[in-house]
Amino acid sequence: MTSTAPPGTITSPVPAAPRDAAVIAGTATLVMAVAGIGANSIVLGVTGSGVPGTAQRIGDGQTLLGLAVTAFLVVAVLDIVLAWAVWRFFGSTHRELPALAAWLRVAYAAVLVTAVGHLATALDVTTGPGSDDAAAHAALTQFEVTWQLGLVVFAGHLAALGLIVLRDRATPSLLGIVLLVAGFAYAADGIARLFVPDNAVLLAVLTGVLVASSVLGEVALGVWFLVRGGRSR
């Protein structure tokens, strides 16, 4: 049967292949988890802290930081893929919220690419002639600030996704609750690191909540997508 919708009409996702969308969403989520953790670990290990010696540290870890930049770009691309998969999987039954969650994920991907641009700048100023500690440190600071702002946007995505999961009869409600907690943790952590960066106790607590809720929420949802997603819809 051919579609009778006029050209240019925006239609709802076709619910005929939710399993395909679930596999894509699950795979993207788990690959992003590995790539994101690896890239973040590299950045933290290479950059260190303080202005003195920044250029030297980046120069010594040039290859690793290049890998981190590549990994972050892969994450950004997969963010867009996951945004489509989430809209495809939930959009036929939940309408507006999946679209909101998808667009917030795309917005986060755009902010992440902008942040990665600052990492590339740090590499450029340390590998070119007349490397400058202050310029390299400034680029790294811009990366951190931009990324933290992006994580606040990402928190909105997790909150929307958590509400979708809570409303979806086929998805475990516990995952929705954990995603909402993760969204709160991402937002609180991002804001705290921007405005109270010297409060080590608060940041440690928020980081612990963030890591735990991310593992239990995002990764668990990715596994659920792969194992169960779309089989009972």
TrEMBL record:
Pfam family, one: DUF4386
Annotated keywords: Membrane, Transmembrane, Transmembrane helix
Keyword Transmembrane helix annotated: yes
InterPro entries registered for this protein in UniProt: DUF4386 (IPR025495)
TM region(s), chain numbering: 21-44, 64-90, 102-125, 145-166, 173-195, 201-227
Name of the protein this chain belongs to: Uncharacterized protein DUF4386
